[in-house]
């Protein structure tokens, strides 16, 4: 399948480039690269008229923002080569390296390592929210045994949870390619405690999770919160990300309504992650 590369110049760049990424992600754009002038957004060529999708965003309709775009078609073969060639290791503090199979693993032997086949998703670790969620996991003195990774992407957080001690992990994503890639990455990292499942929150029949990881977008998270409350054990933890720091008060209020209390917030480049506990 061919892909569309949408090069967008955003003036002023901040904070509108970040907001535009969040809005285009809801239209099934699969990958984003931040540039000095704005963003590059990638989607399957079957997505439809990207000009119409771009014009429907709140950023495009904002009179204080000027957008200009360039649209390119990238053949599948060329896309894969380009993506892999540009894939850089992701270093989370001094504790974790998210790398590709073609990177020199010995160069990162002083860190925990997760090997991920590059794919077009936030889940590679390059996006700020995956970085923040990884930080929250690394900060735990002990990771609960029973973990749900909702919206797993490429399985990075599920794999990290197992490497930190979790022994029963369910990794769920609505996208079939994500489930396939998670299965591949689980094997690549020699994990044995991760089950990958395709679907939305309704396919999660298990309960009594000690930790729920959900790095999706704000609207989906809010719609899931009551379900998270039902399947999370008392004093269980909920890590949320996929929204901006300015959304934290709204997310905290919604979480409070179903019994979660905010313990900690981390921020990176206008994005946020929240650590909550079920009372």
Question: Main traits of this protein?
Answer:
279 residues; alpha/beta; 7-stranded mixed beta sheet; 4-stranded antiparallel beta sheet; 8 helices; 30% helix; 33% strand
Characterize the structure shown.
With 279 residues, the protein is of the alpha/beta class. 30% of the residues lie in helices and 33% in strands. The chain is built from eight helices and 14 strands. The chain has helices at residues 16-25, 50-55, 76-86, 128-138, 156-163, 176-188, 218-231, 248-257; strands at residues 3-11, 31-34, 38-44, 66-74, 90-92, 96-99, 112-115, 146-150, 168-173, 194-198, 209-215, 232-244, 260-268, 271-278. A seven-stranded mixed β-sheet has the order 10-9-8-11-12-14-13, sandwiched between helices. A four-stranded antiparallel β-sheet has the order 2-3-1-4. A hairpin with a 3-residue loop joins strand 2 (31-34) and strand 3 (38-44). The mean pLDDT is 90.
In what order do the strands lie side by side in the largest sheet? 10-9-8-11-12-14-13
Q: What is the number of E strands? A: 14
Averaging pLDDT over every residue, what do you get? Answer: 90
Q: What portion of residues is helical?
A: 25-40%
In whole angstroms, the N-to-C terminal distance is 47 Å
Main beta sheet: 7 strands, mixed
Tally the helices: 8
Which segments are poorly predicted (pLDDT under 50) over 5 or more consecutive residues?
none
Q: How does the overall form come out from the CA principal axes?
A: globular
Strand content: 25-35%
Topology order in helix (H) and strand (E) letters: EHEEHEHEEEHEHEHEEHEHEE
Alpha-carbon Rg, integer: 18 Å
Helix/strand/pairing class, anyone?
Answer: alpha/beta
């Amino acid at each position: 399948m061919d892909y569309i590369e949408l090069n967008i110049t955003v003036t002023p760049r901040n904070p509108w480039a970040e907001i535009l990424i969040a809005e285009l992600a809801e239209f099934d754009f699969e990958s984003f690269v931040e540039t000095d002038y704005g963003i590059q957004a990638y989607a399957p060529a079957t997505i439809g008229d990207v000009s119409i999708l771009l014009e429907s965003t709140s950023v495009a309709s904002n009179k204080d923002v000027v957008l200009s775009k360039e649209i390119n078609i990238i053949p599948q073969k060329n896309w894969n080569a380009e993506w892999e060639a540009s894939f850089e290791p992701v270093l989370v503090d001094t504790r974790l390296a998210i790398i590709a199979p073609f990177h020199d693993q010995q160069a990162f032997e002083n860190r925990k390592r997760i090997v991920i086949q590059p794919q077009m998703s936030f889940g590679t670790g390059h996006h700020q929210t995956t970085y923040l969620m990884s930080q929250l996991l690394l900060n735990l003195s002990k990771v609960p045994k029973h973990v749900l990774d909702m919206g797993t992407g490429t399985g990075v957080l599920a794999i990290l949870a197992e490497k930190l001690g979790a022994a029963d992990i369910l990794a769920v994503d609505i996208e079939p390619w994500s489930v396939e890639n998670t299965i591949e990455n689980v094997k690549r990292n020699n994990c044995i405690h991760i089950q990958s499942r395709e679907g939305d929150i309704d396919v999660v029949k298990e309960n009594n999770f000690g930790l729920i990881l959900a790095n999706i977008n704000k609207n989906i998270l809010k719609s899931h919160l009551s379900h998270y409350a039902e399947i999370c054990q008392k004093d269980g933890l909920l890590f949320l990300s996929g929204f901006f720091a300015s959304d934290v008060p709204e997310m905290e209020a919604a979480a409070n309504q179903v019994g979660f209390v905010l313990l900690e917030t981390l921020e990176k480049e206008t994005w946020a992650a929240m650590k909550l506990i079920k009372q």
